[in-house]
Structures are given as structure tokens and as C-alpha cells.
Amino acid sequence: MPEGHSVHRIARQFDRNFVGKTMQASSPQGRFAEGAAVLDGREAVSVKAVGKQMFLETEGDLWLRVHLGLYGAWDFAGEILLDPTIASANGRMGQTNQRGTDLDAAILDDAGENSLASIGAPRRTRVHVRMSEQTKGLADEGAQWPPPVVGQVRLRLMTDITAADLRGPTACELQTPDEMLATVAKLGPDPLVGDPAENEERFVRAVRRRGVPIALLLMDQSVVSGIGNVYRAEMLYRARLNPYTPGKQVPEELVRELWRDWAHLLPIGVETGQMMTMDDLSPQDYRAAMASRDDRHWVYHRAGLPCRTCGTEIVLEELGARKLYWCPRCQA
């Protein structure tokens, strides 16, 4: 499932390519035909991401809510104004997948630092890209326009030069402003949305009043927005916190450290497109980590391998119907 950094990246692309423009909307699959008919001909006014959900505002006080869920993805095609913090040197979107990327596709300076943010002015390029958690960005120069419909497209949004196809979302619906606000109100705080101090206090209160294991609380989108399986495992390890510790038994300062760590990691994910959770790497190690998940994480997807710190075998268990990776010694 796409974690929060991916959805923020997708929202940036909508901001650059759709906001301020009149959209054509259709539902090639037919499952969103009525909603597409309502959207058709409206101007996109604004867009925002909160955790794992994106909200696109259109004229007439109407919002499109999209939750990609486990299998959803957006495909962009046409003349795309690339966000300089997302684009790579060969015209592709930065990767949103966790399968690794070629070193040649990563933009790294001589010191091994990610330099996407310093590319300069946004560039226009005719490409085809996919943004989801499980698929690579794809480039297809000189593609047919408008692009042919491929597969089960729930919703196609188009301007005169750009198209975005939505496939397989958990949720795709139209909302009034009040309904949108009610949806957002049910979500936990997102470090990139709202007041930082207030967000931290909301998170601390939500965790400290619950007897639920902290590993479950971090995945509860009403407690905190955007954290999925990868960030959950990595944050708990970075905090050296036993995943089964009830929230109300986690010391308040440690709860605050968890929040601040999430506020630290999320912007890195938005910038790089990778859930990078290892700090202070050498230039060589940073390049390796940007190229491969195997070098990017402390415990996630490392079941049976030795802990990078103590050598104890990393454990894989199931908690809340999701895989949980942790070190039984470092996180005892």
C-alpha cells in the first residue's frame, strides 16, 4: 500500500499539471461514470494530501477523494510539468516503488547527496509515468495522444496536454466541502499538514491514552496519518521500542521522539521517492541505499538476517494481519 510520501508526491504532480486548468473526465471502466460526468468540464482549484488520501478540489465546491489502497495507482501521460524534487535526469518520475532503482536513474552529487531539489526550474517533457507503491516510473517518448486506455481505468482526468489515469483505488468518490472536512477530521495528524506543535500534541494524546500495542497504533490512520508497514517497522527500531508495548506505557518523551522521527523521515521520502530510514551514511553507502532496499532499512524485509547493530536474527511476525519485522534484542 502506498505510504504517505507517495501520496504527497502524487498531489504535487496534480498541483503542477491540473490545478488552474479545465479538466475532461471520463470513466472508461464505467464504475465511476456518474462521478466523472459531474467532474467533466470543471476547473481544478487545489489539491492536498493527508496521509494516504488525496483530495482534489474543483470549481463549484466539489472535491474528489482518492484512496489508492493496496492496488491503486495513477498513470500520468502527455506533456508533464515535472516537479524538480521528483524528476530525474532521464525524464522519469522519481521512483515510488520499493523494488530498487538503477544508480544511473538516481540524481546524486559527488558527495552522494540527493540533488533533486537543486535541479532548478521545472521542465516540460512528453512522458508516460506511473505513480504507485509497487510499480516503477516509465518513460515513453512520443507516445500517442490522447493515450489509449489500457486496463481497468476507473477515472481518466485530462487537460488539453496532460492525462492522469486512476486504476484500482480503494476509494474514489465526490464530496462536498463539509464531507471532505469530516473525512480529514477522522484522520490522525500528518507532519506536512497543519500546525506542527498541534500535530505533535494530537499524536501524543492519541497514543498515551490507549492500551493497544504501539505497533498497531502507528498503523492506525486515526492516530497518525501516512505510516505503513515499512515506516512502522523502521521507526520502532530507530526508537529501540518493543512493538508490543501498549501505547499508554510508552514514556511521553519517547512518544514525542516517535512523532519527530516521522516528521523527519516523511520529507525525505517525498523528496527522494524512497523510504530511506538510515541516517549519516557515507557517500558510497548512500548511493547503495538509494539503489536497493536491501541497503536502505534497518529491519524491514530482513527476516532471518542478522541485526545490523547487534547481530541477533531479525524476527518476522504477524500483527493486525500485517507483517511485523523487529529485533528482539535491540527492541527488547
From TrEMBL:
According to its UniProt record, which cofactors does this protein need?
A: Zn(2+)
Residues in domain FPG-type? 298-332
- Recorded E.C. number(s)? 4.2.99.18
This entry's Gene Ontology molecular function terms read: class I DNA-(apurinic or apyrimidinic site) endonuclease activity; damaged DNA binding; oxidized pyrimidine nucleobase lesion DNA N-glycosylase activity; zinc ion binding
Family the UniProt entry places it in: Belongs to the FPG family.
* Protein origin, superkingdom: Bacteria
Keywords tagged on the record: DNA damage, DNA repair, DNA-binding, Glycosidase, Hydrolase, Lyase, Metal-binding, Multifunctional enzyme, Zinc, Zinc-finger
What name does UniProt use for this protein? DNA-(apurinic or apyrimidinic site) lyase
> GO annotations under biological process?
base-excision repair
| UniProt cross-references to PANTHER family, sorted A to Z | ENDONUCLEASE 8
- Give every Formamidopyrimidine-DNA glycosylase catalytic domain span: 2-100
**Which EC class heads this enzyme's classification?**
lyase
Q: Which Gene3D superfamilies match?
A: 1.10.8.50, MutM-like, N-terminal
The UniProt entry, under Pfam families, shows: Fapy_DNA_glyco (PF01149), H2TH (PF06831), zf-FPG_IleRS (PF06827)
Alphabetical list of CDD domains matching this protein: AcNei1_N
Q: Does the keyword Zinc-finger apply?
A: yes
